[in-house]
Amino acid sequence: MHNFHYQEDLLYCEDVPLERIAKEYGTPCYIYSYATLVRHFRAFDRAFDSVPHIVAFAMKANSNLAILRLMASEGSGADIASGGELYRALNAGIPPHKIVFAGVGKTRAEIRYALESNILMFNVESSGELYTINDVAAELGRHARVALRINPDIDPKTHPYISTGLKKSKFGISANRALEEFRLASSLPNIEVVGVHKHIGSQVTQVTPFVDALKKILALIESLQAQGIHLRYINIGGGLGITYSDETPPHPQELADAISPLVRDLKCELITEPGRVIVGNAGILLTRVLYTKKTEDKRFLIVDAAMNDLIRPSLYDAHHDIWVGHRHSNVPNHTVDVVGPVCESGDFMAKDRLMPETQSGDLLAVMSAGAYAFTMASNYNSRPRVPEILVKDGQSFLIRDRESYQDLVRGEHVPEFLSPGGKGTTE
Ligand code: LLP
Question: How many helices (H) and strands (E) does the chain have?
Answer without folding.
Answer: 12, 21
